[in-house]
Structure formats: structure tokens, C-alpha cells
Amino acid sequence: MQGLESLIPLILIFAIMYFLLIRPQQRKLKEHQAMVGALRRGDQVITQGGLIGKVTKVRDDNEIDVELAPGVVVRVVRSTVAQVVSKTEPAKSST
Question: Is 66 exposed, middle or buried (0-12, 13-18, 19+ CB in 10 A)?
Fold first, then answer.
């Protein structure tokens, strides 16, 4: 019984750490992955380096082309996009 009483504070500390640190971080990571996965042509984005530009081409699962200024296009790794400033509307299908 004495050993169990000494473990209770340790278990409580781990539970508090889980709910205050680990769980919110996992939720934030999932939100970022969803945002990056939903990037499409025409979205205006801010990279982690502070560059603001418009997505001109989605190359593959890992890279996008971002136009920083007229005629200046750079390849960017998707995961470095920090924020989507404005989303474009999806193209309407002509059915």
C-alpha cells in the first residue's frame, strides 16, 4: 500500500503534463497538416521564413511553387507554410 501512495503524485503529474502540453501540441500538429494538405493554386500563404506569396502550382505531396512578386517564383516545401492568408474558392464543375 505504501508503494502505491508514493506513485499517485507521479501519475497525477504525468496526467497534468499530458492534458496541458502533449494533447494541445498533437491537435495543433493535426490542424497544420490539414491546412498544408488543403493548399491549392491561388491561395495566398505566409512561410515560416516570413515570405508572403501566392501558390501558383502544387508540384507533388511535398512541394509547391509560390510567386513572391510578378515573375519571381520559388519552390517551397509544403511543411514550411505557416499560415494561409486567403483561400481561393474551389473551381465549379460544369455538369
Answer: buried
